[in-house]
User: Fold this.
Amino acid sequence: MGGPFAKSYRQIHKLSKTSQANAPEAIQKAVASMHSALNGTAGYSLFNDNLDEFLTKKPAFNAIKTELQQFFTLSNQVFFEPNAKNSIGTSPIEWLTQISRRSRDCERGLIPDTLTSATMYSEKKG
Assistant:
């Protein structure tokens, strides 16, 4: 219960409860926390271009492959395209909380729910 994603989930969940949850600094901290958990779990720096290698070594994470790809897109936007509209929607910290929880579930050998983040957000808006 003390794995990298459990720690990341706790950090991001705390950030989501602050009044500045969707401030750029909070989102950067949340994204950095997820990167740290991914790198710690992989044992190397993980990016979108070596995600398939990671999923081969850690097949439990295949259930959230789409979200991991979306995460790397968001990460790129947060750190390298700060003026671009993010691809996640109006509450990236909420989305990051959910993906960190789902990653924690994978880390624990649990099967996360089947909703993808795209489905989750389109249902909230509709």
